[in-house]
Amino acid sequence: MSDRVLITGGAGFIGSHLADALLRDGYHVRALDSLVQQVHPTRERPDYLDPAVELVVGDVRDADAVRSALDDVDFVVHLAARVGVGQSMYEIDDYVAVNSLGTATLLQALLDRPVARIVVASSMSIYGEGLYLDRGGRAVPALARTRAALAERQWEPRGAEGEPLRPVPTPESKPPSLSSMYALNKFEQERSVLLFGEAYGIPATALRFFNVYGPRQALSNPYTGVLAIFASRLLNDKPPMIFEDGGQRRDFVAVSDVANACCLALEQPGVAGKVLNIGSGESVTVAEIADRLARILGRPQLEAELTGEYRVGDIRHCFADVSRAHTVLGYAPQVTLEDGMRELAIWLEGQVADDQVEQARRELSQRGLTV
Asked: Could you give the count of Cα atoms lying within 13 Å of 50 in the half-sphere of its Cβ?
């Protein structure tokens, strides 16, 4: 009999791609998912979820649902979470409940239903600002950007003496700097799972995902990945809206590469207790991404709108050093940004997006979360 994998949040964007990859590898796959309306507007099983996936509709905070979903399970990939920096700053109770309490509920259930291995989805957001070097090539912490500096449109972080800094790929050794409730939640998820694994002898691995993109993203969720948000605007013949000046650098990684990394984390030896970056290892500015997507979708005339605003909890630059994941997992990104965006564009044909970006922007502004 093949091993059975439980994916919490398995009916979502990343979860469904992981399910596809696991099925191809011969696993039985069960998904626990609450089908939250912000991601699944109809609250029904998504058409893209492979029929071979056993879907258990239930909330990760529901102990009975979690215990039931764990029956006869060999491995767990814990993806269930509320996502997004901006929304986490004003839906605090819900983010803490789903992300922190949901993880605790899963771990409590695993006491009576232990598994062979756990993989938890962490996030690049826990780094806050990425790694920076000073003029002498020394790694130095970037000072937090003050509201006063941001109000003056001074976007770039500075060193302790006010010196300019150069962003470089961020390794796992960089200490966390938690700049949003979401980042705090993800760090707690990561640490809880690793502590549990160490205490109970269950190999546990945390994968810090960078900016994941690809088909099946929730286009009508204004707090999902930035490429999906831009696509939602462009599909409605509106220009993408970009905070600050668009010069923020990010690492965009194809969802198929992320799914592959999860599979490797379930299969490779020597990954217990490891924290690993999962990104592309490349960086690109947010403005450049918006321009590329507009061209690929045939809407080059819709130039991005630079709002000149700062969103509380956002950081300036962060992109991945994936060398440890390569060494430990044998992980190597296979999808170039250009190819991945073309695949996204093909999927976007015929998709309908309810553009809620302006509404989300008003919500943030009314709560004083933009500068």
From this structure: 18
> Dihedrals φ, ψ of 29, to 5°?
-125, 130
What contacts 217, CB < 8 A, 6 or more positions away? 13, 224, 225, 227, 228, 231
DSSP 124: G
Q: Name the region of 137 (left: φ>0; alpha: ψ -120 to 50; beta: rest).
A: left
Q: Which residues fall within 8 angstroms of residue 4, CB to CB, at 6 or more apart?
A: 27, 28, 29, 30, 72, 73, 74, 75
Return the bridge partners of 32, or none: 8, 56
Other C-beta atoms closer than 10 Å to the C-beta of 136 total 7
Domains belonging to the chain, first-starting first, are 4-366 (3.40.50.720)
> At 26, which amino acid appears?
G
Candidate list 27, 95, 132, 182, residue with the active-site label? 182
- CA angle, 290 as apex, 285 and 291 as ends, to 5°? 95
pLDDT at 260 over 60: yes
Bridge partners (DSSP) of residue 311 are 370
pLDDT band for position 235 (cuts 50, 70, 90):
confident
Q: Is the pLDDT of residue 10 over 80?
A: yes
Instruction: Tell me, yes or no, if 182 is annotated catalytic.
Output: yes
Q: What is the mean pLDDT of residues 95-109?
A: 97
Pure H helices in the chain: 13-24, 63-69, 85-88, 92-95, 102-112, 147-151, 181-200, 226-235, 255-267, 286-296, 323-329, 337-348, 357-366
Report the mean per-residue pLDDT for the chain. 93
One-letter amino acid for residue 324 of the chain: R
Residue 81: name the closest of 8, 163, 167 by CA.
8
Q: What is the DSSP letter of 339?
A: H
Alpha-carbon distance of 165 to 23, in angstroms, equals: 45
